Amino acid sequence: MQSNGRYSGVAIALHWLMALLILGNFCLGLYMADLPLSIQRLHLFNYHKWTGATILAIAALRLLWRLTHRPPPDLPAPRWQIRAAHVTHWALYALFFAVPLAGWAYSSASGFQVVVYGVIPLPDFVPKDKALADSLKELHEILAWVLFSLVALHVAAAMKHTLVDRDGLLRRMAPGRA
Amino acid sequence: MRMTLRSAFVLAAGLGLAGVAFAQAKVIPAQSEIDFVIKEQGVAVDGKFAKWSADIAFDPRKPETGKVAFTIDTASATFGTPELDGELPKPTWFNVARFPTATFASSTIQAKGSGKFEVVGKLSAKGTTKDVTVPVTLAQSGGVTTATGQFAIKRNDFKIGEGEWAATTDLANDVLVKFKIALSGVGPL
Fold first, then answer.
1. How far apart are CA B153 and CA B174, in angstroms?
2. Which residue of A44, A112, A132 is the best one to mutate when testing the B interface, meaning the one whose CB has the most B CBs within 10 A?
3. Among B9, B76, B86, B145, whose Cα sits 20 to 30 Å from the Cα of B33?
4. Burial (Cβ within 10 Å: 0-12, 13-18, ≥19) of residue A126
5. How far is A52 from chain B, CA to nearest CA, in Å?
6. Is this complex scored with an ipTM above 0.85?
7. Chain A: residue nearest B40 by CA?
């Protein structure tokens, strides 16, 4: 914990890096899903998988950091809001893992091993199976939409603190010196 | 065809002789497969030919007199992924409408010792014929002879993947063909 009530520099850096990667990969996923087969489609699918694997790795780092570093104390707010904020944060953490893992499994079940950046092969932890691939595709999609919805809720709550409560909450996570 | 007793006799004798010279081997489809592997941005993707037939006359003790021929139904190529399988029959890939089959016919078979053989032959696909050398390993158990092996071909030699797909930076030119053919009726090694 930092004396100025801010998150640590590492936590802030990981938060914004993750925000960028998740939003970017979400949009990429939506865009590429229905493209006809082309070199571009294969490239985009690989970039999407590589980014997802990167998100998974950063999620592990972030969880480790979060468990070993106390975040700044909650700002004063009604009890239900504090509870909702905590539940949302832990659900976000769970989805940082669940969405990429479902995508990874979907890729394996479709017969495409994930080779991160074209050099690091990830093990296939499910067999190649058409029916399984279809279910995992759906699961990956649903989880991604749940993640997107929670991110939207998270952003809306931050906006509410900034514009309605004007309690300076955003300064706790703002990059640079506050 | 009208068959006289004499021609029937000649035919039977001929078949009998052929049987002595070349035991005609029979493929056991359930235990056989012809697969291919292609790399795309470092990812090895496996496919197979679901339908093919083989004409194999081969005596392991007289390999040089043997003959091996395969006919592969190009429409049966599958990655098991609908979005890819829908593309394979198109002119860019196998052009199944114009070239419904790919064939392999052996020219020479050489013994390499301890159940290994080298089959040189002509591979024809999509209007191009190339010589290929196929290493084959035979194993026998309980009357079943299993021939396994793999060899690489350059897909661009056969124009498989035209247009933007001809580039080999992401989609490798090398395609590994792997096979396991289980046969009955092959003489002992």
1. 6
2. A112
3. B86
4. middle
5. 16
6. no
7. A42
Among all residues of chain B, which has the CA nearest to that of A40? Answer: B164
Name the residue among A106, A99, A11 with its Cα closest to residue A51. A99
- Rounded Cα distance, B107 and B150, in Å: 18
- Residue B146, classed as helix, strand or coil, is strand
Query: How far, in Å, CA of B119 to CA of B60, rounded?
Result: 12
Q: How many residues belong to chain B?
A: 189
Q: What pLDDT digit, counting tens, does each position of A30-86 carry?
A: 999 999 999 999 999 999 999 999 999 999 999 999 999 999 999 999 999 999 999
**β strands within chain B, DSSP E:** 24-27, 33-40, 43-49, 52-57, 67-73, 77-78, 101-113, 116-125, 128-141, 144-154, 171-184
Average pLDDT for residues B116-130, to the nearest whole number?
Answer: 97
Find the length of chain A: 178
Give chain B's domains with CATH numbers: 23-184 (2.40.128.110)
Question: How deeply is B158 buried, as exposed, middle or buried, from its count of CB atoms within 10 A (0-12, 13-18, 19+)?
Answer: buried
Q: What band does A3 get if pLDDT is binned at 50, 70 and 90?
A: low
Using alpha carbons, select from A111, A137, A109, A108 the residue that is nearest to residue B84. Answer: A111
Rounded CA separation A8/A14 (Å): 10
A140, two tokens: 């990956």
Note the pLDDT tens digit of each residue in B16-73.
444 444 568 999 999 999 999 999 998 999 999 999 999 999 999 999 999 999 999 9
How many CB atoms sit inside 10 A of residue B40's CB?
Answer: 18
Pick among 1.20.950, 2.40.10, 3.30.420, 1.10.10: CATH of A9-172: 1.20.950
Where do the structural domains in chain A lie, given as residue ranges? Answer: 9-172
* Cα B91 to Cα B164: distance, rounded to the nearest angstrom: 13
pTM exceeds 0.90, yes or no: no
